[in-house]
């Protein structure tokens, strides 16, 4: 699914990714943990094609294609989805309108037919309640006046409807209380499939109790410094990141 | 390149030379001699077979105009206009007697604009679900070439005709109301218009009648170097209702074309007038060359108690826009509304807004203005809300939002408020924002293209106003917004 080789990227003069290697096979869920400033969010932006981030070296292959050659919307159409740490507000654009515009834009890019209004409504009605998303939230402006938890649930709804191949979750647990965390995790777990891979970025082991990863990576100073099974997350919870900071230094 | 930066680059590269409506219809036309003099005024009046009183009215306006100075307070700049360098009257040769006699070239022009002129076509093309119809009064340069649905309207007692005809056929109504809202000496451009107006629409809806269809006029400036001076007069008698749509395009010209219209609305007791405009005149090319100068005086008079006038405008065209559709809230409990979307791109300059003059008791007004500036354009909202000392209980709510695309454009808000009555309640809200890098990326990450993303964000921004437009217009306006910003995103 995803193969990252020797990835170097910078924003302005700051090099943030410094030779990162990562492979995520089809159907696997990988977690990336690491201290603040280790480059976790940068990785998510570089993979999703955010402007301002410049790749200076290395390669990213997605389903055999050169991901870095595509612009952000083409990457989305190819199946890369980023659940934002801080979802963006778009006043005046109804959440429903946005969802439908996104679905149809991706379908169009893939040469598929647009979804009909009744099919779209049916789909949303089937998926929204599981994530605790009310009709009112669907009618309101995208993320406008949503609580932190509502924003995160809305991200997962988009992910559910868009059916991406690669889901990147950037600190989806931040700002969630335990109940919201369960709802969100449940939504994410429902999307696990042999054809879909996930990259879960988090500070805390807590999220990984609910979304159990196949592999856990530790990221530090722009590189993966250690990889292991789910037990690695528990170990980190015990000992913190200090040891890795010393290793890498 | 950052997305917003890229957008800015594309705005700079916008090729407005590809103005969608920039074509010239090749027909013979008859013009008044170039320049403006008493003779020009007499020529126009004679061409229209006007009665003596109308000629006197025009000459009086012309003499006043000679004593007036061109206003300079608006936040727009342009080379001094040589008023002697324009043709003040232009008409297709041989005025048509019926639709079948209309020059096929003119019909083709309207076809390109998507206006079905023939009644049958109009019925097939414009009739919407629910059976609503649109009657079109087409003004080609200075003469109304055809009026559709006239008969059906006549059955309801509604008079909808070119004002030149109304002057001859309904002199009592014209004498009573013409210049009663925008006096002859109101301002430089209105006075000029009063002297040389060539045609426009006249609407009278009698007592208690709800006009059975939306009325619509398409204005089009075709002839090189002609000023177009329409004069529109709409009267809703007691308890009447009418919705009027105005749409404008002009072909591409190098010289700046002058346009100084006057629109007067009169709403008597319990009457309501809804006036919607979509204006997409040629804005000039990418270097700011050419384009229409649009100096318009639009004013509505809520003359009777419980009357209501509502202005809705979508302005995307013209090199210079100077336009303040206003309401005089004279009747007790009368209401005025102004909903505006003004989009400027390239080198366009917009100075637009409204005036709400509260005179009667318990009058209320509402202003929602959305300005969108892109490219090198300047977009100013200028508004006045005033309450007379006898206007007890006057209320106003104003909301002015500006959206900037790129960093070479400007948005300005100039609100004036005057309350001479302590019971007046005026509220004013204003915001200025930019389409942020983050918003664009969020949309792109969900699969939208740059262009779709900007159109979506802008449509969200103007949603409150779009909702005020009649259905037929809302769809058109939405498309127009996308077209106007096309250059801003490639």
List the helices and strands and how they pair.
The complex is a heterodimer of chains A (249) and B (490).
Chain A (H helix, E strand, L loop, with lengths): L1 E10 L2 E11 L4 E5 L6 H9 L4 E10 L2 E2 L5 H7 L1 E4 L6 E5 H15 L7 H11 L7 H5 L1 E2 L5 H15 L3 E5 L7 H13 L6 E6 L3 H5 L4 E6 L2 E6 L2 H9 L2 H7 L1
Parallel strand pairs in A: 3-10, 3-11, 6-9, 9-10
Antiparallel strand pairs in A: 1-2, 1-4, 4-5, 7-8, 11-12
Chain B lengths: L2 H10 L16 E3 L6 H10 L4 H15 L23 E3 L11 H10 L5 H8 L7 E7 L2 E5 L2 H7 L2 E4 H7 L1 H7 L10 H9 L4 E5 L8 E7 L10 E6 L4 E9 L7 E3 L2 E6 L4 E8 L12 E11 L5 E8 L4 E4 L2 E4 L5 E10 L4 E10 L5 E10 L4 E10 L7 E10 L5 E10 L5 E10 L2 H9 L4 H12 L1 H4 L4 H14 L1 H4 L1
Helix pairs in contact in B: 2-3, 3-9, 7-8, 10-11
Brief write-up:
Chain A has 249 residues and is α/β, with parallel strands linked by helices.
What does this 3D model show about the protein?
The complex is a heterodimer of chains A (249) and B (490). With 249 residues, chain A is an alpha/beta fold. Chain A is 39% helix and 29% strand. Chain B is α/β, with parallel strands linked by helices. Chain B has one domain. Helix content of chain B is 26%, strand content 33%. Chain B is built from 14 helices and 23 strands. Chain B has helices at residues 3-12, 38-47, 52-66, 104-113, 119-126, 150-156, 163-169, 171-177, 188-196, 437-445, 450-461, 463-466, 471-484, 486-489; strands spanning 29-31, 90-92, 134-140, 143-147, 159-162, 201-205, 214-220, 231-236, 241-249, 257-259, 262-267, 272-279, 292-302, 308-315, 320-323, 326-329, 335-344, 349-358, 364-373, 378-387, 395-404, 410-419, 425-434. In chain B, strands 5, 6, 8, 10, 11, 13, 15, 16, 18, 20 and 22 form an eleven-stranded mixed sheet that branches. A ten-stranded mixed sheet of chain B has the order 4-3-7-9-12-14-17-19-21-23. A two-stranded antiparallel ribbon of chain B has the order 1-2. In chain B, strand 3 (134-140) and strand 4 form a beta hairpin. Chain B is globular and about 65 Å long. The two termini of chain B are 14 Å apart. Mean pLDDT of chain B is 80; it is low at 1-18 and 116-132. Chain A binds chain B through residues 48-52, 71-73, 75-77, 81-82, 84, 87-93, 97-98, 101-103, 105-106, 109, 141, 158, 162, and chain B through 1-3, 5-6, 436-439, 441-450, 452, 456-457, 459-464.
